[in-house]
């Protein structure tokens, strides 16, 4: 990809050129522990009926800014969250009925405050396979702002009938980046 960007920049110095660079599957994986002894009463986001539901919480820090941040220096950058997987190695998420995912900046929570990234009700297939792909609520521009500013904290709230012991779940976040470069003299 760097070779393609360099070629575009060199050719733009000579005349005019344009092009598109696709950077598929920039992924980060982490493991979170959910402990049912830390049961919370969490209010769902305001776009739902405001009720409190018992949830257990886990969080992880994700930094994709180094992977995508510098691309914006070369042209118009667009990102799409293509995967936000939560999985149980044991293959059982039957105890989870709903997932709420919040995102906030680790370094500048005043500028990038906690906001809902996803709110998902599991299907029977999600529950039996132990794997769910959580759709995002944020528009691409807002997501790009959060991901390029630095490290973000993802907080997962799980509602359902909780297991008796702490459980580890793996989260994998993947995005595709598209860079449009257009230069003319």
Structure description:
With 185 residues, the chain is of the alpha+beta class. The protein has a single domain (25-178), classed as Jelly Rolls (Sandwich), CATH 2.60.120. The chain has 4 helices and 9 strands. The strands form 2 sheets. It has a 5-stranded antiparallel beta sheet with strand order 2-3-8-5-6, with no helix packed on it. The two termini are 24 Å apart.
What's the helix and strand layout?
Elements: H1 2-14, E1 17-34, E2 40-43, E3 52-62, H2 65-68, E4 76-87, E5 96-105, E6 115-121, H3 124-129, E7 131-133, H4 140-148, E8 152-160, E9 167-183
Antiparallel strand pairs: 1-9, 2-3, 3-8, 4-7, 4-9, 5-6, 5-8
Key attributes of the depicted protein:
4 helices, alpha+beta, five-stranded antiparallel sheet, 185 residues, disordered N terminus, 9 strands, Jelly Rolls, four-stranded antiparallel sheet
Count structural domains: 1
Contiguous helical run count? 4
Global shape: elongated
What is the CATH architecture annotation? Sandwich
Derived structural class: alpha+beta
Percent of residues in helices comes to 10-25%
Poorly predicted runs are 1-16, 43-51
Assembly status: single chain
Instruction: Give, in order, the helices and strands.
Output: HEEEHEEEHEHEE
CATH class identity: Mainly Beta
What would you say about this model in short?
The protein is α+β, with helices and mostly antiparallel strands. Helices cover 17% and strands 49% of the residues.
